[in-house]
Amino acid sequence: MDTSRHEHANHIAACLELAVILEASAHKPGNVSVVTNFENTRYEHFVASAVAARSSFEHAAEQGAAVSKGEISLAGVGIGKIIRNCVANINAWQHGGNTLLGTVLLLLPIAAAAGMIVKENTLGIVELRKKIKLVVESTSPEDAVDVYEAIKIAKPAGLGTAPKLDINDPTSTNRILSEKTSLYQVFRIAEKYDMICSEWVNNYPVTFDLAYPTLTRQIRNGDDIHVAIIHTFLKILSQYPDTFIARKTSLEKSREISLRAKQILELGGFETPSGRESLSRFDQQLRKSSNLLNPGTTADIVAAALALAVLDGYRP
Questions:
Q1: CA angle at residue 191 from 188 to 197, to 5 degrees?
Q2: What is the mean pLDDT of residues 299-312?
Q3: Residue 316 lies in a domain
Q4: How many domains does the chain have?
């Protein structure tokens, strides 16, 4: 590999690793942070996971660069295998359970797409979004099988059952291969009840159209990154009920939580005494139910927005 390509991939990997650590650090309600832990999952598990994921971010970027050079096809990126290997590596580096499955599913296509953009010192967000669409739409049935393996390794909470190609059904992977169902098509089936899948198949609408603009606006307004992340988190949650919570409890409960996030923002969020008090009560409420009310998918979207910001030049 030429030196410039390696440096480009290494830079992308560093950006995404930083994004994961920044997201995990912020004291978002109902989530692990630098000052709050779950019983079996702590902040250091997320830091270890970010470090473990870096080599996969770099590999995805290298594959993207190979596409741009015409050395491999888009279908040859092998995003499913990269996701599986990334999750396995994360699992080997920490004992806190599933930390980054949703984040990895969102960030690895971003890494591959960024690798395809080889202009010096620039990474246009509009162009990046177009490349992400190419990456996810070019996935194969083999990618789908690899992602099923990744999910089995991660063992995410609240997985439930699916109406078609259920991951808990041992015949699903054979059907995926025999029916030639791509990963993109599998996620199309799941998009109605899983926000990560919806982001994949709809070209990351919440990430690009809400989360990233909210985050960058907060940063431009002079908020420190901690406050910017919390407000971005609340903004997403207020408009999109968290599907992780909905799967573990009910859609009605996730909508209640979204309404609370909206009310906190209307009080001023982290920037007013009443907002901070309400935010603290909200955090305690979400932690009372054995992590059933952890807005984990919202946190994954924030990580993706941070990845875009850091790729675009943001530095803490």
A1: 85
A2: 97
A3: no
A4: 1
